[in-house]
Amino acid sequence: MILVFFISITIVVGVFFRYVLGSSLVFVEEAVTISFIWITFLGAAVAAKMRRHIVITTLSIFRGAKSRIYMSIFCDFFVLIVAVIVCVFAVRYIEPQNRSLTVSLPVNFPRGWVFSIPTLIAMASIALTQLAYLMDSVVRLRGPDQEREPMKILGG
Amino acid sequence: MSIGYILLFFLAAAALQVPVAFALIFAAGAFLAIDGMFPTSVIASRMAPGLESFPFLALPLFVFVGAILSQGGIARRIFDFANSLVGHFRGGLGHVNVLASMIFAGMSGVAQADAAGLGRIEIQEMRRAGYAANFAAAITAASAVIGPIIPPSVIMVVYAVLAEVPLSDLFLAGILPGLLMGGALMATIAIMAARGKIDVALQPRVAWSGRGRAFLRALPALAAPVFLIGGLLSGVATPTELGALTALYAVILGFVQGELTLARLWRCGVETVVTTGVLAFLIAAASPFLWTLAMHDMSGWFARTVAGIAADPVALLLLINVALLIAGALLETTVVLLIVVPVLAPVMLLAGLNPIHAAMVIIVNLLIGALTPPFGVLLFVMMDITKSSLNAMVRAVLPFYIPLVIVLLLLTFIPAISTFVPRQFGTGLW
Question: Can you give the pTM of this predicted structure?
Answer without folding.
Answer: 0.82
